[in-house]
Structure formats: C-alpha cells, structure tokens
Design brief:
708 residues, 27 helices, eight-stranded parallel sheet
Length: 708
C-alpha cells in the first residue's frame, strides 16, 4: 500500500482518537498520508499479522477508514452510546481496501443544535463528539461555541459598555437564537465568566476539528444590532415568535462596517477557514418588501465579510425558502442568489429529506449546495423517520444535473434517532442500494454482534412502524402527541397524525428488545439502553394518545382519567433508568458552569425555560416546542397539567367559556412553579424490568381490548 514518506500532520490526532476508541491495541495501527487525486478524499487500509495500516488523504478520511475496518472486520461500530474502549484485543487480517468519498463534504449541525443539545457541554463531551464526527466523515462542522466573546469584542470597539453588551447577548441557553438575529436581551444577562470560559472552550474545539483536517464554519453578522446602535442608524424592527429585534438597512454603511468588525474579532480570537454562516432572514420576512431588497442584504453581508477576509465564502441555510414560501417566490429567491457570485456562497438545503428545494430552484441557481437532513425539531425524543426515503433522496440529488457538493445533518438536536445519523453519514462514502441489508449490518455492528437475531427482528419491526414514515411531515405542528402537549378544551390534538402503523407490530419489536436485555443485561449500558427507552417512548406516547381519547369520549369518567394519568407516572419510572432521559441530568449540566449565585439563577432558569414555555409564561407561541420525554417532566410537569385539564373537563366539554380561561390561568401558575422549583430528582431503576412491566400493562391491555 503506497503512502507518503513521512507521517502526515494529522497522524497524531487520529492516533489519539484510536487510543480513546480502542485502548492499548491502538499501538498496532500505522498511519500514513496519501496524495489526493482531483481533490477527492480517499483512504486505503489493510491488516496483516495483527497490524492495521491506514493511508489517507486527510485525518477525517483516516478516521473513516478505521471505523469502516472496525465495522466490517470486528463487527463493532462507535456511536454516541457505545461503551469505550471497544473490546478489541487484536486486529484480524483484512485485504487491501481502497475507497473514495462520494461527495467532498460532510456538513454537521444547525444553529439550534447548540441550544437544544449542547449548550452546557464541557470539553469531555466535545472531545467525544468530535471523535464521532471524524469517524463518521464530518468535514464541515458549524462551530458556534464561544461566538459571544467575538460579539463582546466587536461591540466594545463600537463603543458599547460591558453591561450593555452582556445584556444584549442574553441567557447562555439562547445564544444561538441571538446569533441568528431572532432575539436579544432575553433570559440573561450573560456572565463574564461564561464569556471567558467559552472563548477557551470554543478555541479548543476548533483546534481539534482543524487537527483532523475539518473546515469549521464560523458565525457571521446578520444585520441584527442592539437598540442603541439601531437608534442612530437606518434600521427596522422585526418580529420573531413574539420577540422584537432591530436590523440594519443594508444601505447604511454601518452594516458593512459592523460585519467587518465582527469578522476581524473572530479571526483574532479563533482564526478562520474562510467559511462563514449567516442567515439574515431565517424565519423573518425582510423589513423592505422591494423584491430587490434581499439582494441588497446579500451584497452587504458578503461585503462585510470580504472587508475582513478577502477569501470569505458565505454558507446560508435555505430554510426561509421553505418556511415562508409564500414570500420567497422563485423570482425573489433567484434574485437573492444571483446577487452573490457562485464561488462566494454555499447553500444548505436544510430539510431535503422531506421538502427538498434543490429541484424547485434549479440547483440553487448554480451555487454549490449541501443536501441536508433536518428531521428533529427542538430535541423532541419521539423516534420517527422515513428511513427508506433517505437513500432514495440522496441518490436522486447526486444524479441531478447540479449534484450537491456534500451531504449534511442539520437536525435541531442530536442524541435522538441515531439510525438516521448513521444512514446519512454512511452515504458520504457508500451508496445504500438495499436498506434491509444495510439495517441488518447496522444492528450487528451497533450491538457488537450480541443478541443479533432478536435485535435484527426488533429493528425490522421498527422499520415497519416508526421508521416507515413515508410522506409524513415530522414537525411539532404536524406530529402531536398528548404527553408533551399543553392541554386545552378548545384545541383537540389530532393524535391520528402520529399513528401510521399497527401498534401491535411496534409492541412486538419492543418485546424482542426487552428479551435481549433480559438475556444480556450488560448490553443496557450501551446503545441497547438508549434504543430500548426510545422504543418504549414510541409505544407509550401512542398509548397516552389512545387513553386521552377514551377520557374525552367518556366525558371525563374518573376511572378513565386515572388510567390516563397513570401513563405519565409509569413512563416516568422507565425514563429514570437512563440519566440522559432525566431533567435532572440536563439541569445539572447547566449548573456546572455557574461561577456564583447570580450565574446559577440564570443558568437554572435557562435550562428550565427552553424545554417548557420557551419564552415567557404569557406567550403560547413556542410553548413545549422543545418538549422532551424526560423523567421529572413526564411524571411531574406534564402529568400535573393534564390533571388540571381533567378537573374542568365536564365544563369544558359543555362549552363553558370560563373553563378555558380558568385552565389557562392554572397552567400558567404551574409553569411558573416549574420555572421556580424545577422537577423532583429521578430515581433510577432496572430498565429491563421497567420496560417489561410497561409492555405487560399497556400492550397486553390493548391486545385484550382488540380481542387478539
């Protein structure tokens, strides 16, 4: 196997990853560089006499090679929940294998991900995540951590004092929405200790990503400014979900100047790879209806970037073109895109697995673009996807006249539906012509070859149910389940939208997973524990929907109300068996960053607020948007709300208008109580036993009712 004469610059970084994944046996891996052909990412590996040799064009490709070898020849993959180091004591022989990436780039993250998944991560969390990224072929991650330090530095130069800047930035859990221009001055202020600690963390993240050969994408100016600046400039007010912000008119020279100041501050603190993410519209209509106005915004945004970095390339999420398609007509979109030369913009087709825009806009008017899967909104924990549609959508895009430059994962949150993340990243390097065969291999490797027959059967059941969501719009407004829905007498959740399959098939898949867990309890420490909880959530959420309808049809029969509320208590006990499915875990991570009492109050509030009311208790616009099936929430906050609903149900069904008013006030009080007091600590138990108990109580009861 040919290789470079000297060890490549990335070798030590990938060697460190190998040690974290494999332990001492990693000493038997040899890494070498190889020349790229036509700019392609490539790798080659072979194993002989206990030594694994990997040659690659870059560190990410070398990491993919290592992961491919482990999957194909050791029967083990590395996921978020995999227990490390892997139980590999020697490397079995493997013939020489060459591979080339199907696309140049693997994109990762969404601005929202940094609020809904990782706002409170520390370096240990990030190191594990960056290893996952490298092993799965991610080359172009969005890098937002620490951007608050950039804004603080830039606005200091523009004359704002420290208190005003930290107030403008707001709470740490909401920073990504600040960066997108959606809000300011909310749920803060931001502490000085947070800014400094996350400047250091952000730099460390970028250093590691670059050491692998990744090209991080850094945030850029969107036109959003503090009120003090807006009051002395040409600016307009915007609304987003009840929040008001100020945005500069691109004709004002200050637009370009501030954009340049922010970019210069960023380069000084974090360096640059010349890729910048900015979404000047996102979910807000431009402040000027003139069709030429978006193009003026585009020109001013790029001008600010290039004033600081002549090599700047702007990455923009195409989400507005889908979210507000009535405004973003084809003429408006093309005019906007044509305002930027093709070599200066990269477009992320953010929801391509459900609402692909690349065909509608003719491959984005010649701009290089990324096919991305969005799937998850707000970090909701329901397992759901159209697995069969993913490879079909990717193949169609790659076969088009203007194929994507890369594939991406742009979920608003991670740590959910891991099978979808694996399926998309696999196609960076390999086509998936047979999903059933791919799924069988995925299952074998995910559990290290243990419990294979039963787990393969379970996953076939999941493929036929929750992962068979062909044509289903998996979004908070179309995927309602009563568990995390704020109750009302006037609005009845259409729970039928969440059930496109036979529950008995899902119950059978769940039982097969439980059987494997009972036979080999050690597997619960790894991915099986996560998957067992997700499957239990899927079944119990639909059980709650069915029992809710029973309550309504019975006009609030006390026995049926009690049965409905018991679902919340029972599910809560199961969720408590895994730390990551507890509210307690989320809040503890937030509080770990507190540098003092005031800091602690802001962090506690942010952690509680964003997953419940999101904004204020008086605004229903984003209430429960980030609803989570977590212990402490399900058996406490959510259950209490439905109990309040049940108390007034008779009056509500009779059409008494005062009933809804009184319910809204009681729910408001409950939300305020949660923001003040939080949730009771979870009491962990035996996951297999709790899962078996729920299966017997709910799946068995359904079979009895259906006469099966």
């Amino acid at each position: 196997m040919s290789s470079g004469e000297h060890a490549p610059l990335w070798a030590d970084t990938v060697r460190g990853l190998a040690h974290r994944v494999l332990g001492p046996v990693a000493e038997s891996i040899r890494f070498a560089g190889s020349a790229a052909r036509d700019g392609a990412r490539e790798y080659a590996y072979e194993a002989r006499d206990g030594v694994l040799t990997v040659a690659a064009t870059d560190g990410v490709s070398a990491s993919v090679a290592l992961h491919h070898y482990l999957r194909e020849h050791c029967g083990m993959s590395v996921g978020w929940d995999t227990v490390l180091p892997l139980r590999v004591t020697s490397f079995p022989d493997a013939p020489l294998r060459h591979a080339s990436a199907r696309v140049r780039e693997g994109y990762y993250f969404n601005f929202c991900t940094f609020s809904y998944t990782m706002p409170y991560w520390d370096w240990a969390d990030w190191e594990r995540e960056i290893d996952w990224m490298a092993l799965h072929g991610i080359t172009m991650p969005l890098a937002v951590t620490g951007h608050e330090a950039v804004l603080h530095a830039a606005y200091s130069l523009l004359g704002l004092d420290d208190d005003r800047i930290r107030g403008f930035l707001g709470g740490p859990g909401y920073l990504p929405f600040q960066y997108m221009g959606c809000l300011d001055d909310f749920a803060g202020p931001l502490s000085s200790s947070w800014i400094e600690s996350h400047r250091e963390l952000g730099a460390r993240i970028l250093d590691r990503e670059r050491a692998f050969g990744m090209t991080p994408v850094l945030p850029a100016f969107t036109g959003h400014v503090p009120r003090e600046i807006a009051s002395t400039a040409r600016a307009g007010r915007r609304q987003w979900q009840g929040f008001e912000t100020w945005v500069l008119d691109p004709a004002d020279p200050l637009y370009e100047r501030i954009g340049a100041e922010i970019t210069r501050a960023q380069i000084k603190l974090f360096g640059t790879d010349h890729l910048y993410a900015a979404d000047p519209f996102i979910e807000m209509i431009p402040i000027d209806a003139d069709p030429a106005f978006p193009g003026a915004v585009a020109s001013a945004t790029l001008a600010g970037l290039r004033a600081a970095d002549p090599d700047a390339v702007w990455l923009m999420q195409a989400w507005p073109f889908s979210y507000q398609r009535d405004f973003w007509t084809e003429d408006r979109v093309i005019a906007f895109l044509d305002a930027i030369s093709d070599d200066r913009m990269l477009v992320a087709d953010l929801w391509a697995e459900h609402d692909p825009l690349w065909g509608r806009f003719d491959g984005f008017s010649g701009k290089p673009w990324l096919w991305c899967a969005l799937l998850n909104f707000g970090g909701r924990t329901d397992p759901a996807a159209d697995l069969r549609g993913v490879p079909e959508g990717i193949d169609a895009a790659l076969a088009s006249p203007s194929p994507p430059a890369g594939l991406g994962l742009s979920m608003e949150a991670t740590r959910n539906n891991p099978v979808v993340f694996e399926l998309v990243t696999d196609q960076l390097w390999n086509r998936v012509p047979d999903l059933d065969a791919w799924l069988d291999a995925f299952v074998t490797q995910r559990y290290g070859g243990q419990g294979t027959a039963g787990l393969r059967a379970a996953w076939r059941g999941l493929l036929d149910t929750v992962y068979g969501a062909q044509g289903v719009r998996i979004a908070p407004d179309q995927f309602p389940g009563v568990l995390t829905t704020n109750p009302s007498y006037e609005r009845t959740p259409d729970v039928s939208r969440a059930l496109w399959y036979r529950p008995a098939v899902l119950a059978q898949a769940w039982e097969r997973m439980i059987e494997v867990a009972e036979q080999d309890p050690g597997l619960l420490d790894g991915p099986l524990g996560h998957d067992l909880v997700e499957t239990g959530i899927a079944y119990m959420a639909r059980a709650a929907d069915r029992l809710y309808l029973d309550v309504v049809e019975s006009a609030g029969d006390p026995e049926r109300v009690a049965r409905f509320l018991k679902v919340f208590e029972d599910l809560d006990r199961m969720l408590a068996c895994r730390p990551e499915y507890t509210f307690q875990h989320w809040e503890a991570k937030a509080l770990s960053w507190a540098a003092g009492p005031a800091d602690r109050e802001v962090l506690r509030d942010n952690a509680r607020r964003i997953i419940t009311v999101w904004g204020t208790v008086d605004s229903p616009l984003l209430d429960d948007y980030a609803g989570r099936h977590w212990a402490g929430l399900v058996g406490g906050y959510y259950r209490d709300r439905w109990e309040l609903w049940a108390r007034g149900l008779t009056r509500g069904l009779a059409g008494d208008p005062a009933a809804e008013t009184e319910l809204r006030e009681r729910l408001r009080e409950r939300a305020e109580t949660f923001l003040r007091d939080g949730a009771a600590p979870a009491r962990p138990g035996d996951l297999a036993a709790e899962s078996r108990r729920l299966l017997a109580a709910y799946a068995g009861a359904r079979e009895a009712e259906d006469g099966r």
